[in-house]
């Protein structure tokens, strides 16, 4: 019972902090810059426990945070594209440093260092791509609705999948990686997300969130439901990817920083695949 209470309190606070941070662009940038740094630090610490792996945790973490801030600055039109030059130099440094560190296997070090950027820093950076959009006049505006909806869809999918899977789940989704997940649960989570996506479409068209600073996205109800389906599919895949990662490391949780919920990777595993997938989906709509 005590563990359930701790887990519930942590979960409620986590959701509240995420939602509130999106009310202002600066609070969003600061919170997820911190989340990026903490997640990269956690990831590099985990892989450094493997044989013949010795990533530079500090440089990888600084690089990841810088990439997030650089993308945020560029997308919000506060900085020019040259802001990425220091990041590129950092990537070059991570490769060149392998010549001088005399580690057992520099290829492993390079691979995991780059993975920390591609798997964690880049997906988090895509939040700014969703949040900042250029208008017809060329001005850049901040709209919290799309990035917030990604997290709402992820939470709804988890809730629906857990409830449905607990009640009628019989057919395993991916037993080799995550024996607890079922096809019935995944379908139940998807259905709940479709309902919420339809409600989000209605709220978007009726300007329900205008008082919170959100502007109309221009998405139709079908496009909103397509976004929800994209998040469901890639969020589930993100969860499975992290489960496989932990299984190969032989650990249950990626960390213990969030009482009752594990580590940063445990909390953001689904979003690390869903956020970039949502960006691809939204930009595909604009092209088509």
How many β strands by DSSP?
A: 4
Cross-sheet strand order for the largest sheet:
1-2
Low-confidence stretches are: none
Q: Quickly count the helices.
A: 10
- Proportion in β-strands: under 5%
- Give the overall silhouette: globular
Distance between the termini: 51 Å
Biggest β-sheet strands, sense, barrel? 2 strands, antiparallel
Helix content: 55-70%
Taking Cα atoms only, what radius of gyration do you get, to the nearest Å? 20 Å
Topology as a string of helices (H) and strands (E): HHHHHEEHEEHHHH
Which structural class do you get from the secondary structure elements? mainly alpha
Question: What average pLDDT do the residues reach?
Answer: 92
Please name the defining characteristics of this protein.
two-stranded antiparallel ribbon; 69% helix; 5% strand; two-stranded antiparallel sheet; 288 residues; 4 strands; mainly alpha; globular
């Amino acid at each position: 019972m005590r563990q359930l209470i701790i887990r519930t309190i942590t979960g409620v606070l986590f959701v509240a902090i995420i939602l509130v941070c999106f009310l202002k662009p600066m609070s969003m940038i600061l919170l997820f810059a911190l989340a990026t740094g903490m997640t990269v630090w956690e990831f590099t610490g985990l892989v450094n426990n493997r044989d013949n792996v010795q990533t530079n945790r500090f440089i990888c973490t600084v690089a990841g945070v810088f990439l997030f801030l650089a993308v945020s600055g560029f997308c919000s039109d506060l900085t020019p594209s040259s802001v990425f030059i220091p990041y590129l130099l950092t990537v070059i440094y991570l490769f060149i440093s392998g010549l001088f560190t005399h580690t057992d296997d520099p290829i492993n070090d390079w691979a995991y260092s780059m993975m920390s950027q591609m798997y964690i820093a880049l997906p988090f950076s895509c939040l700014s791509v969703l949040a900042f959009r250029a208008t017809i006049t060329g001005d850049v505006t901040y709209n919290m609705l799309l990035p917030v909806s990604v997290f709402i869809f992820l939470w709804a999918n988890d809730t629906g999948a857990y409830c449905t899977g607990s009640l009628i789940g019989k057919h395993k989704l991916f037993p080799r990686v995550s024996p607890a997940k079922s096809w019935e649960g995944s379908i139940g989570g998807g259905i709940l997300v479709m309902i919420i996506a339809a409600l989000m479409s209605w709220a978007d068209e009726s300007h329900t969130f205008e008082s919170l600073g959100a502007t109309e996205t221009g998405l139709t109800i079908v496009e909103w439901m397509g976004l929800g389906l994209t998040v469901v599919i890639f969020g589930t895949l993100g969860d499975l990817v992290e489960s496989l990662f932990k299984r190969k490391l032989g650990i249950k949780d990626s960390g213990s920083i969030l009482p009752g919920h594990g580590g940063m990777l445990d909390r953001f595993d689904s979003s690390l695949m869903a956020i970039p997938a949502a960006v691809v989906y939204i930009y595909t709509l604009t092209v088509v």
